[in-house]
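User: Fold this one for me? It's PhzF family phenazine biosynthesis protein.
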Amino acid sequence: MTSATELDVLRVFCGPDGRYGNALGVVRDGTAVVGEVARQTLARRLGYSETVFVDDDERGAVDIYTPTTRLPFAGHPCVGTAWLLDLPELRVPAGVVEARQDGEFSWITARPEWAPGRTLRQYASALDVDTLVVPPPGEWIYAWAWQEEAAGRIRARAFPGRGDGIDEDEATGAAALLLTRELGRALNISQGAGSQILTAPNPDGSVEIGGRVVLESTTVA
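Assistant: Here's what I get for PhzF family phenazine biosynthesis protein.
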């Protein structure tokens, strides 16, 4: 990778006031970082929950990494990258992700079977979720509780359990996708310190995931 490679840093699934959201690194010229080893090394150094390498900004071909592994699909990277590139679809190893903009929200459509495995763990109340301590490394846990069941409002926190320095994800699209499939209804999820994720199931089994995206900075990786 050359020193001229630009990195866009976004926050995805921001709250109504534009704060919070999960940080995402996007290397627009992904061809400047050649090979999985080099990309994994950069993703580990940057330390975001995910880093995206754009291999073709016209076709929307992207490659997604956590600090420790390559992912066939991930929610907040696809929502953020589709917003950044203003494309109607992205191509990830799992398949084609449709994208659209609707006012302040950026939406993608994806299939739950694309999402990595998550343990969805329900708690009795939002307070129970709020007071959880970070568990030791192990399984990937999405802790959730109803805030207002009739309205589809949920309180959630996400614990990746990977031991890579990211003890808690501020906002997690793939886990929200799996929870939407399990509950079979549209959800309004408050996750982390103040992030918001909207979801809606489709008749064909796919799920829409939406949220606000903010460009935090453009720098050199």
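One thing worth pointing out: The longest helix spans residues 36-46.
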